[in-house]
Amino acid sequence: MTKVALVTGGSRGIGKEIAIGLAKEGHDVILTYNSSVESANQAVEEIQRFGQKAIAVKADVSIKEDVDSLFSIISEEVGSIDILVNNAGITKDNLLMRMTEEDWDQVLDVNLKSVFLTTKAAIKGMMKKRYGKIINISSVVGVMGNAGQGNYSASKAGIIGFTKSMAKELSSRGIRVNAIAPGFIKTEMTDKLADNIKEMMLSEIPLGYFAEPKDVSNLVNFLASEKSDYITGQVIQIDGGMNI
Ligand code: NAD
Question: I want to staple 206 with a disulfide (CB 3.0 to 4.6 A). Which of 67, 103, 159, 241 is the partner?
Fold first, then answer.
């Protein structure tokens, strides 16, 4: 049965691959984008090729007013969503000595507050249907910590705590909430890392290679499907063994 999915930051990188993957599974997709309307339209076209409905909405998901208007559009266009993928995220890496308050606030707002805002808005419809799948994109760094990423790792660890609390709070309404903790996935976010950092990270990956966005999308498809209905409150690491 066709379900409706919302993927935040779905116009590029992992989010785009997730949006396309869900469309391939026969779901309609609403994706949010932050800046580039061209790449959002491209993602919409790719989804439509699979015969699914696709809508791109410009929204800064760290701002309540933007999330409110996103859900007004969802309500008008499709009623409500069945699957929520909280994927939008940023990095502003620095050692704590050099990290500004602004860098801390921005990363926490985009990566963590956004998850609170979208989840709160999404569960109204899910509770009525007594069904929903919420999938939060965390990071292995939220589990392991990482020097130079105090803000990012705190935001991703916060997502894990929120995921577990929501799994407990929402299970009685048929809503499953899980987190995915990717290791190193090849996207624009990781492209900007220096070669020596990439080499160091590669040496810590037992499987010996970096993942593609498709690897995360495959896992999202499983968690969004009925095949995973008995799984909730889990953090699934997809990291080539980086954090064994
Ligand atoms: P990316 O930079 O390519 O994409 C991030 C997406 O988030 C973009 O679509 C961007 O427009 C969107 N976004 C950023 N700020 C936003 C805002 N305020 N409102 C709405 N959307 C916003 O990065 P990616 O590698 O595709 O990362 C996707 C997710 O996966 C992020 O949450 C990231 O932290 C997480 N992650 C990535 C890796 C990796 O190795 N690439 C590893 C672990 C976790």
Answer: 241
